[in-house]
Amino acid sequence: MSNNEKIKIKPGTLLYPLPAVMVTAGTIEKNNIITIAWTGIINTDPAILYISVKKSRYSHALISEAGEFVINLTTEKLARATDFAGVRSGKNFDKVKELGLTLIPGETNDTPMIAESPINLECKVMEVHEYPTHDMFIAEVVDAHISAEFVNENGSYDFGRMNLLAYNHGGYYGLDDEDMGRFGFSVMKEKTKCRKEKEERRARRQAMRRNSVKRQSEQKGGSNSKSKHKSKKALNS
Fold first, then answer.
1. 157: CB partners within 8 A, 6+ apart
2. What's the burial of 96, exposed, middle or buried (CB within 10 Å: 0-12/13-18/19+)?
3. How confident is the model at residue 25, as a pLDDT?
4. For residues 99, 104, 108 and 109, what is the CA-based torsion angle, rounded to 10 degrees?
5. Which CA distances in Å does 235 have to 226, 227, 230, 232?
6. Which of 44, 76, 94, 234 could form an S-S bond across to 163 if both were Cys, CB 3.0 to 4.6 Å?
7. Would the pLDDT of 126 be above 50?
8. How large is the average pLDDT for residues 95-124?
9. Taking the mean position of all CA atoms in its chain, how far away is CA 101?
10. Distance of alpha carbon 201 from alpha carbon 178, whole angstroms
11. Beta-carbon count within 10 A of 121 CB
């Protein structure tokens, strides 16, 4: 059998890899998290996305009732949470409590966002297309948020350091920060390519230094707090 020989197989949805996202639905008081891999981009301006959800899912009713949801990108650190949210039903589990995640209010939607997610996309449902197994919720992105630690000095977003998660035919895979080339690299002049790579490395170093200073400041603040607590305890003893 040659490397170019093809074998006919049963038609199916073998479109991989896909993003594995956690979608929040409901409100701060009554909410659920569902893991969705059937999601994607429809339009750029305005930004329009879709998610496909089975009618039987607990989140389906929450999204249908509210007409909104939030897409929360996932990372390697969130792999277990991502899987759990996809195999356990919100009817029986408080997933936020079970997973120790933090919900924070959205700015435009009533639906909360996952604080641990590096990027949160607040979405308003525009249309719902019904299909035999899933309903497709087409929605406009009305607000977007990114964790400050992933914003470089030049304002660009450092997706490489996010260690985003992908879903590939039943398995979860981490995306490391080594890309095989930036968009347009196949036709880019060598001088331009070198300049862009240099700029990206500089922006990444600046972001790492900024985060290091922030961590040191937080650790120092924690130490001072403990020292004050000990001093107060000694005075009261």
1. 146, 150, 151
2. buried
3. 97
4. 40
5. 14, 12, 9, 5
6. 76
7. yes
8. 96
9. 13
10. 12
11. 22
Beta-carbon contacts of 103 under 8 Å, excluding residues fewer than 6 positions away, are: 24, 28, 31, 96, 112, 113, 114, 115
The residue type found at 5 is E
Q: Which structure tokens are listed for 221?
A: 């603040």
Task: Quickly tell me which residue has 């990206």 as its tokens.
Answer: 200
CA-nearest of 62, 103, 64 to 81 is 103
3-state secondary structure the chain: CCCCCCCCCCCCCCCCCEECEEEEEECCCCEEEEEECCEEEEECCCCEEEEEEECCCHHHHHHHHHCEEEEECCEHHHHHHHHHHHHCCCCCCCHHHHHCCCEECCCCCCCCEECCCCEEEEEEEEEEEECCCEEEEEEEEEEEEECHHHECCCCCECCHHHCEEEEECCEEEECCCCCCCCCCHHHCCHHHHHHHHHHHHHHHHHHHHHHHHHHHHHHHHHHHHHHHHHHHHHHHC
**Is the previous residue joined to 46 through a cis bond, with omega within 30 degrees of 0?**
yes
Return d(Cα 235, Cα 227) in angstroms, integer: 12
Would you place residue 179 in the very low, low, confident or very high pLDDT band (cuts 50, 70, 90)? low
